[in-house]
Amino acid sequence: MAAPDEHAPDLPECPSMRGDGLLPAELRAWMLLLAATGAVEQELRSVVKERLDVSHDEFLILCLLAEQPAAGLRMTRIAELLGRPKTRLTYQMACLQHAGLVTRKSVCGDKRGVEVALTDKARRLLQEASGALAETVTTALTRFVGPAQREAVCGLLPGLFEEPGAQQGPATVTPGGQ
Asked: Is 166 inside any structural domain?
């Protein structure tokens, strides 16, 4: 695996890095993190499609359900957690159900409520693909998270890497190059 900064020179500098715009340091840091996570997400898309034959948004639903008890989650809760419109989620659930990856059932006592759970097939596919998916994320993070992104995280969450009980200073984000 490549060293964390090995690929950083290949990446163009993010305009938010310069710090000469209108954004405060916190928003510049957030933009750096969004750019890095977007790049990781892009790398993951093709592996998700190849290994699971689902879209990235459908993959997010499967991951969310994989962390839940066998009973599943209500569709409204999934929409809230993923920040997706309920109408879009209904379409994605229909695709996942057609593929045999989720089940949908009415919630007892609530005729409008629908609960969704993973099928055994989905659990098996996720388990089989998890190694390749984890490797893709790790490799992409190594490529796209450099010193500037680490500095941004530390600036936004100043106590993140401190020992519990240690004194925390004020949040500061200083723009810096990779």
From this structure: no
Look at residue 114 and give its three-state secondary structure: strand
CATH code of the domain covering residue 121: 1.10.10.10
Closest to 18 (Cα-Cα) out of 31, 8, 9, 5: 31
141-to-36, 123, 131, 150 alpha-carbon distances in Å: 8, 25, 15, 11
Q: pLDDT digit of tens for each residue in the chain (178 aa)? A: 444 444 444 555 555 455 567 888 888 888 888 898 999 999 999 999 999 999 999 999 999 999 987 778 999 999 999 998 888 899 999 999 999 999 998 877 777 788 999 999 999 999 999 999 999 999 998 888 888 888 888 878 877 767 665 554 444 444 333 3
What are 148's two structure tokens?
A: 């500037």
pTM of the model: 0.72
